[in-house]
């Protein structure tokens, strides 16, 4: 990689960080046309004030604040005030997995407050670049790693879900999740219960479900409930209210609404149209 590109290791994943030397030393001005790109962009103000247009929003930025701009959002600085000094970098996830996780914690561009220790770290990076000492790149990579990791913590980034807990294989991990939904689809507090069983936080659980099933907990729960409700309608003569209660609905109207949304017809019509099965 070029001298202005560095890698930041996040567990087994990696970010590529790019810093343009010309951007290190820009003071008093910030002139760039409206644009978008495929990188995440970080701008931190060490001095002065400005206003940044991002899509249809205008976001004020002052000394001690930063803005994280997500890929694909058009943006440009539309005003600058005071003795402007900004710290700028761009970073790109190396893998789609890391990209997906970042999208969950940073779905759109946002302004964040930068702690004093990170402002000082930005100044130290400026000085290290300007000094050009021996092992400059190694020192800068270490400082950039520290900066990125602290900012991700501030965004409540929890990292990439680890391999299935308790040394389970991927197959065993999926079986555990499937068994849970098969046996606990009527539980109102099931999300917390499943997260606890898998030794995951709720955020990590959401990532795992989206990785293996392409959906969050609520979608997975509705699918499990509807699959079981449809089976009961095909194999029993239970009253629809009993079916609704059995799969976790305390309101018949709520059950009817979800069922119709899922299958496109009412439970009664489904029962009439579906071929009868033996339980």
Description:
The protein has two domains: 5-154, Regulatory protein AraC (Jelly Rolls, Sandwich), CATH 2.60.120; 165-273, Homeodomain-like (Arc Repressor Mutant, subunit A), CATH 1.10.10.60. It has eleven helices and seven strands. It has helices spanning 21-24, 96-105, 116-131, 136-154, 170-184, 190-197, 202-213, 217-235, 240-246, 252-263, 267-273, and strands spanning 5-10, 13-18, 40-54, 57-62, 65-69, 75-93, 110-113. It starts with a strand and ends in a 6-residue tail after the last helix.
Q: Uncertain segments of ≥5 residues (pLDDT<50)? A: 163-168
Helix tally equals 11
Total strands: 7
Average pLDDT, rounded to a whole number, is: 84
**Estimated structural class:** alpha+beta
- Give the end-to-end Cα distance, rounded to a whole number of Å: 63 Å
SSE pattern, N- to C-terminal: EEHEEEEHEHHHHHHHHH
* Tally of discrete structural domains: 2
Main beta-sheet annotation: 7 strands, antiparallel
| CATH topology-level fold name of the largest domain | Jelly Rolls
Name of the CATH architecture of the largest domain: Sandwich
| Rounded radius of gyration (Å) | 26 Å
CATH class of the largest domain: Mainly Beta
Question: Superfamily at the CATH H level of the largest domain?
Answer: Regulatory protein AraC
Strand content: 15-25%
Determine the oligomeric state from the structure: single chain
Describe the SSE topology:
Elements: E1 5-10, E2 13-18, H1 21-24, E3 40-54, E4 57-62, E5 65-69, E6 75-93, H2 96-105, E7 110-113, H3 116-131, H4 136-154, H5 170-184, H6 190-197, H7 202-213, H8 217-235, H9 240-246, H10 252-263, H11 267-273
Antiparallel strand pairs: 1-2, 2-6, 3-4, 3-5, 3-6, 5-7
Helix pairs in contact: 3-4
């Amino acid at each position: 990689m070029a001298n202005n590109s560095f890698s930041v290791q996040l567990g087994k994943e990696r970010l590529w960080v790019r810093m343009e030397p010309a951007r290190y030393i820009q003071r008093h001005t910030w002139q760039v046309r409206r644009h978008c790109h495929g990188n995440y962009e970080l701008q931190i103000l060490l001095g002065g004030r400005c206003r940044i247009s991002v899509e249809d929003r205008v976001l004020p930025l002052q000394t001690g604040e930063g803005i994280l701009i997500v890929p694909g959002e058009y943006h440009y600085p539309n005003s600058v005030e005071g003795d402007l000094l900004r710290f700028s970098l761009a970073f790109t996830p190396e893998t789609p997995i890391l990209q997906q996780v970042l999208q969950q914690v940073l779905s759109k561009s946002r302004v964040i407050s930068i702690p004093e220790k990170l402002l000082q770290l930005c100044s130290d990076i400026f000085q290290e670049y300007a000094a050009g000492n021996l092992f400059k790149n190694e020192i800068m990579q270490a400082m950039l790693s520290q900066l990125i990791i602290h900012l991700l913590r501030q965004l409540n980034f929890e990292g990439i879900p680890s391999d299935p807990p308790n040394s389970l294989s991927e197959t065993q991990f999926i079986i555990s999740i499937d068994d849970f939904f098969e046996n606990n689809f009527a539980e109102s507090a099931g999300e917390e219960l499943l997260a606890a069983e898998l030794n995951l936080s709720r955020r990590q659980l959401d990532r795992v479900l989206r990785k293996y099933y392409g959906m969050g907990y609520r979608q997975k729960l509705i699918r499990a409930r509807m699959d079981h409700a449809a089976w009961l309608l095909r194999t029993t003569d239970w009253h629809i209210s009993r079916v609704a209660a059995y799969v976790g609905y305390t309101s018949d109207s709520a059950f009817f609404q979800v069922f119709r949304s899922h299958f496109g017809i009412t439970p009664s019509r489904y029962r009439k149209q579906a071929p009868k099965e033996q339980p």
